[in-house]
Amino acid sequence: MNKVIEIKGMWARYEARWVLENIDFDLFEKEIVAVIGPNGGGKSTLLKVILGIKNYEKGEVKVFGKSPEKARHDIGFLPQIATFKRNFPVSVLDVVLMGMFGRLGLFKNPSKKDKENARALLHEVGMGHLEEKPFGSLSGGQQQRVGMARALAGDPRLLLLDEPATGVDIAAQESFFRTMESFRRERGISVIIVSHDIGVITPLADRVAWLNRVIHYYGDPRGAMEPSVIEKTFGKDMRFLVHDEECITCKRIERPAQ
Amino acid sequence: MPEFLSIGFMQKAFLGGAIISIVLAVISFFVVLRGLSFIGVGISHSAFGGVALGVLLGIEPLWTAIVFCLLVGNLIVLTGRRGHLGEDTVIGIFFALTMGLGVIMLGFSKTYIDLFGYLFGNILALSGEDLWIAGAVGAVVLVSSALFMKELLLDSFDRDIATASGVPVKALDHLLASLIALSIVISIKLVGIVLASALLVIPGATALKLTANWRTMLALSVAAALLSTLGGLLLAYYFDLAPGASITVTASLLFFVSMIK
């Protein structure tokens, strides 16, 4: 399988503070990778480096074999819903059309066909009936679905989702991730999901990266629940439950020895 | 024809007011959506330094004000981006610096100028040349806004998405600061340096209270600015009020009415 992203020994900082140190990371075609870590651990910065909107200091970053800036049109990005201005006067359809602006380039407006494509995407994410509604009037879960339609409107090969489960109820999360999984299957896109929530995205991912300034673990989700890895990423005093889908045989993981 | 429209200076005032209102309303749309109200205040007050420089050098103050405002607007963008200070702090510094420089330069000048007219507007003194300048500069502002509308809109909605989409966001910052500067300079005779920033904020804010559709917001912003300017001019004519103040008070009243919705 081809590599979509290849990062080697990458360092990034905000002023004097290093937020990413010596990052090695890769992503293959059609793969879903979950990047998990505490707030301020560098997860969103990693996405911004991949998007080419945050400079890195050392190392190498290749996206589809190119520099991140040159690969922008192949990437769909869904930021956290908390960053949207709720009273911004755009309709749901307007928001999806915004996802096409990068490919259209300067001085070209969306055509009738672009609008038809945007409507089709809205139907695919189950929001077709809301196309004329003001975007700010939607619930968090609905905004995430519209955001995903927007991120997919540029026909990307890679989707980056920043905390898609934050501020969204459990039913909406479930529905959102099912839609994402179907897009991966049908369109063959690769996905990186960033979250501080261990439980939500781990079951979906092919691989999991634990990130808190450095990557403490990157591999199979089943090996990600090692107390020592979690301790390194989130610090000490972590307690959590591991359970199967039905949660019949829940097992409490013991706190790591002090 | 109504009596006030048969008077030459009132004809010019209405025509100039309409042109300037449309230009300010479009820029107000972006100023409100991007939360740039304080930049408007900073640039409009820097026009004072530009006017003073023109008076000191014996050049038409409008031209020096254009250069001064363009320079200050773009310096605010650059300093805000490169420095460790917040944009509001940078604007506050430039605001004080340019006003201070203006007062010092006027102190060296031996020429009499209508300072009150520059500070609070004197639309009744609009000349034919002023109208041509307002029309030409206004056309530049409107055409530029139309050409980059979708990029400016996306950048206002979410900067990260805009950057990730390949929109040249830094260049757009400079474009918008320049368009704000040009709009302010042509509005100095309408409402003056002190009140110009009001028309950069109020029409857009009024429109945003009334709609959740950006196209309607743009149209309502133009309507609010025209109604404020033409209504304010009529009130000034019939009740012998200062036109600039009358226009901004009318615009503010319209905003409060829009809040009732």
Question: Keyphrases for this structure?
Answer:
heterodimer, A: 258 residues, alpha/beta, Rossmann fold, six-stranded mixed β-sheet, 8 helices, B: 261 residues, mainly alpha, ABC transporter involved in vitamin B12 uptake, BtuC, 11 helices, 0% strand
Describe the protein in words.
The complex is a heterodimer of chains A (about 260) and B (about 260). By secondary structure, chain A is an alpha/beta fold. Chain A has a single domain (about 5-225), classed as P-loop containing nucleotide triphosphate hydrolases (Rossmann fold). Chain A has eight helices and eleven strands. A six-stranded mixed sheet of chain A has the order 5-6-7-3-8-9, with helices on both faces. In chain A, β8 and β9 (about 215-220) form a beta hairpin. In chain A, α2 packs parallel to α5 (about 140-155), α4 packs across α5 and α5 (about 140-155) runs parallel beside α6. Chain A is globular and about 55 Å long. With about 260 residues, chain B is an all-alpha fold. Chain B has helices spanning about 10-35, 35-55, 60-80, 85-110, 115-120, 130-145, 150-155, 160-165, 170-210, 215-240, 245-260. Chain B has one domain (about 5-255): ABC transporter involved in vitamin B12 uptake, BtuC, CATH 1.10.3470. Chain B is built from eleven helices and no strands. The model of chain B has no long low-confidence stretch (mean pLDDT about 90). The chains are: A alpha/beta (about 260), B mainly alpha (about 260).
- If you compute it from the alpha carbons, what radius of gyration of chain B comes out, rounded to the nearest whole angstrom? 18 Å
Question: Which stretches of chain A of 5+ consecutive residues score pLDDT under 50?
Answer: none
- Which sheet architecture does the biggest sheet of chain B show? none
Q: Distance N terminus to C terminus of chain A?
A: 42 Å
CATH-derived topology of chain B: ABC transporter involved in vitamin B12 uptake, BtuC
Domain tally of chain B: 1
SSE arrangement of chain A, N to C:
EEEHEEHHHHEHEHEEHEE
